[in-house]
Amino acid sequence: MLHNVPTLLVYYASSAVLLVAFLTLRLLQFFPRSQWLIFEMMNKIATIQMPRENYRHSLFTWPMFTSMRSSILRELQKSASRGKPAPDSQLVSVDGKSRCRLLDFSRRNRPLVVNFCSWTCPVFRTRVDEFLSIAREFSDVADFLAVYIEEAHPSDGWAFKNNVTTSRHQTLEQRCNAARLMLDSVEFHNCAVMVDNMDDEANKAYAGRPIRLYIIKNQEIEYAGGTGPTFYNPSDVKQWLQSVRTSVKNTRHRA
């Protein structure tokens, strides 16, 4: 829930601006010259080249609008921000049998890189190897955690063609099954994988949907990545971890 009037006003004002933009872009789609610009804009936003036939039918539709409006709400609700204590959200194991807290994965003064994700996100599927290569390269100085949250593009929501077919999670079993589908496709070496609970506790606290990166150290947020896909930047995380490794080496050398 939104707890204060200014936040409420921002939410409704943002939703109104988004609706006007959608209506305008929806009309522009009927003009051939405008279509090229729209598709180029979508590629810039997505940060990857996606086949137009996979998403053109869903552009500026009601499911897309509700999905983006939900992301605005998550952003306004989140409690995670740089320099503040990291929310210790409850997580569930992929087999659904055990529960723990996010900060259980944060060890002493080692950085913990957290990647919020879902397998229906084409951007995450395309860039997951980039993230996992960072996990392999910096496993000596940091720990890594992937948290599976609600689907970015469920089959009964803002759906893409030729995409992974997974509906909105109605039960914890469905969410765990979706996470296992991801693990059947990619091996997460040097990176633990957990599932958000059905109250979306982690997603609400960190505004993780559709994809997002954070770095936690000493139970505080040291790096808060922007909302994906546009501001999903594993290279920023790599640069941050490289500075940590350099600092550790210099400390050892002086010792």
Description:
- This protein is globular.
- The model has no long low-confidence stretch (mean pLDDT 94).
- It is α/β, with parallel strands linked by helices.
- Helices cover 45% and strands 14% of the residues.
- It starts with a helix and ends with a helix.
- The protein has helices spanning 5-28, 32-46, 52-55, 62-77, 122-137, 172-185, 201-206, 234-254, and strands at residues 90-93, 99-101, 112-117, 143-148, 192-196, 212-217, 220-224.
- The protein contains 8 helices and 7 strands.
- The protein has a 7-stranded mixed sheet with strand order 2-1-5-4-3-6-7.
Low-confidence stretches: none
The count of DSSP E runs of length 2 or more, i.e. the number of strands, is 7
What does the largest sheet look like? Answer: 7 strands, mixed
- Number of contiguous helices: 8
Cα separation of the termini: 51 Å
Strand content: 5-15%
Q: How would you describe the shape?
A: globular
- How are the strands of the biggest sheet laid out side by side? 2-1-5-4-3-6-7
Structure classification: alpha/beta
